[in-house]
Design brief:
mainly beta; Jelly Rolls; 2 domains; 8-stranded antiparallel sheet; 35 strands; 0% helix
Length: 504
Amino acid sequence: MVFQNDILAGSSGGSSASSVYKIDQSIRFNDDDSAYLKKDYGSDGSQTTFTLSGWLKLGILTGTAHSLFATGFLNGSAADFTLYFNGDQLYFYGGYNGGTPTNRLETTQLFRDHSAWYHIVFVADTTNAVSSERLRLYVNGSRVTAFDTETYPSQNDTLVWGDATYSHVIGASGDDMAGSLNSQTPRYHYDGYMAEIVYIDGTALDPSSFGEYNSSNIWIPKDVSSLSFGANGFYLKGESASDLGNDSSSNNNDFTTSGLASHDQVPDSPTNVFSTYNPLANPRSGALSQGSLRFVHASGQKQGCFSTIGMNSGKWYIECYCESLNNGYLQLGIQDFAYHNNENRGIGDTQLSPAYDYAYFGFNGNKLVNGTSSSYGNTFATDDVIGVAIDLDNNYIYFAKNNTWQNSGDPTSGASGTGGISVTTPSSTASGFYLFGTGVGTGSSGYNPTTIINFGQDSTFVGENVNANDYSNYVGASDGNSVGSFFYTPPSGYLALCTKNLGS
């Protein structure tokens, strides 16, 4: 179920019907890496009739714009085609006359759910006699009809998408200067995940070609491999980590990649959603990146960040890579959802004496239980991988440093809780479920650690050279359900924090 502030909650176990179409991976676009896909065509496609479709999971949408599909250029007098996020609104701009787009759709609907996947379908059919039918936008199977601004092309107008004069770009758009994208450096980079990216050249399709509602009235993907894509159409699945731009249709309309690496193929997908850090629980100027997996704590602020998925039963394994400690004041653990934004301070703040808060403090190796500090384990160092085993069937939490469980802990000890930290039963907490999170133990300037979290979607920690002096420890192991990938092997019975492992 979806709670306020983009939080999912559930218990372990359960699975969906085997007949449901599964998407195994997505492509992670990190705007700090200037990531995008680009295709140069040798001949034109239809510029009057086409369909664009893609599944999206949002990262950070701050800044001027985050482009999804684009071609043409922006010089105030020439043609442009851009479908993009402007903050948390979805915009389409097409064509320019004296610096003003001639075709515009600006949604009133806001897109703020960072825990879920959106399905976006854009349909162009300028041959239609009805003006409002010439451009159509759908989100999760439903047509968007409420716009702050809407202007439509004249009948039979040609759009720039499909014009081989220009490069076609996914995940960015062109610069504000004359000339085609072939000679420009794209900008307005998208930040987040994309899966099942489809272009149908020459046909206007509705969303039912790409998805359907299940018995719970949730929009889910359909297998699109049998669609007729048209001459310039493509189907980008990201199924090859070494060739993320490979076209899985029979057209071989492959894209070149820029700013993307093999670790940007991740198992987070519309049919198996992994937890990330939550941008809406990102307080006091801390900076998120890399698909909301990397968090730079703000200097001089006591603050942290929390997971998008909460836990109320089951056994869960999470890894946190200490990319940079900057004086070592890092805390991590779990906190009741009801307190997770308490003064935006994150996990383990002793000044607040928070209830239902259990943390491991890397600066002195202590544990923090409801704000009270006591001896526990070893201190953290840069390049350490901290493992977190959360047993909410027996109500204990365990921490490991580089695969050594602290306090002689044994996460498989069950009800005895050997070496574990006892936690309050989730059903008796304020909200009934816990979030994983991080925090900083001081507000002094210069104490701003950087962490990269792995809930099971990326054992490379976005490609960092983890444990540079002992990288042989890396195993890339999945959990007991053969889900995800971890730097170290999870304890027996502990699972990745994703919807495939949730019961409801």
